[in-house]
Amino acid sequence: MNRKEALELVKSEVSKKNLIKHMLATEIAMKFLAEELDGDPKKWGLAGLLHDLDYDKTCDDFENHGILSAKILSEYDIEQEIINAIRSHPNHEAYPPETTMAKALYSVDSLTGLIVAAALMHPDKKLKSLDSDFIMRRFGEKRFAAGANREQIKDCEKLGIDLERFIDITLKAMQSISDDLGL
Questions:
Q1: Which of 27, 143, 152, 163 supports an S-S bond with 49, CB 3.0-4.6 Å?
Q2: In sequence order, what E strands does 99-165 have?
Q3: What's the pLDDT at 17?
Q4: Of the candidates 67, 82, 146, 85, the residue with the CA atom closest to the CA atom of residue 114
């Protein structure tokens, strides 16, 4: 599956524009992380783009989130490594991530949401106005973007990247497509 086909699939399965933007943010962050961690940016990007493919169908049945995506994607020409990463990202304990790509997807998923929340609280609501220090300060505020799982994000250290560097890579990635994200 190429990116164009993946994006068409996302648009056919996902109804909420903000969720599609989250998936785009995760895609670009995964591409940047692949470059940092000697991964394949195309594969990692596909994992990021497709990671919440089933969310419309599983938002009220979270136990099946990721599992349904894996079933859907098994019908397409897509590498098993990508499918496994997508299956494990919300079900980290039931399906432990086995690859660097899967571990990165698990950590970056929550971070993109935290960065969007930080942008929205900034006076101009633009990603370009943010820096890693600003995000780090928000990261330390437990009530800020409470849905962004800090422990999940801190798992980036298992990749050999410290938290501040992980935030910096993800922020720069998202800034590179700020127009697509509307931020």
A1: 27
A2: none
A3: 97
A4: 146
Q: What angle do CA 121, 173, 10 make, to 5 degrees?
A: 90
Assign 91 a pLDDT band (cuts: 50, 70, 90).
Answer: confident
pTM: 0.96
pLDDT at 92 exceeding the cut of 80: no
Gap between the Cα atoms of 154 and 36, Å rounded = 17
Tell me the domains of the chain and their CATH numbers: 3-181 (1.10.3210)
28 contacts 41 by C-beta, under 8 angstroms: no
Q: Which two tokens stand for residue 22?
A: 């989250």
Give the rounded distance of the alpha carbon of 50 from its chain centre.
9
Q: Contact 166/30 with Cβ under 8 angstroms?
A: no
The full DSSP string for 34-75 is HHHTT--HHHHHHHHHHTTTTHHHHTT-GGGTTHHHHHHHTT
pLDDT for 93: 82
Q: What is the pLDDT of residues 126-177, one digit of tens each?
A: 999 999 999 999 999 999 999 999 999 999 999 999 999 999 999 999 999 9
For every residue of 21-33, DSSP letters joined together read HHHHHHHHHHHHH
DSSP-derived secondary structure letter, 6: H
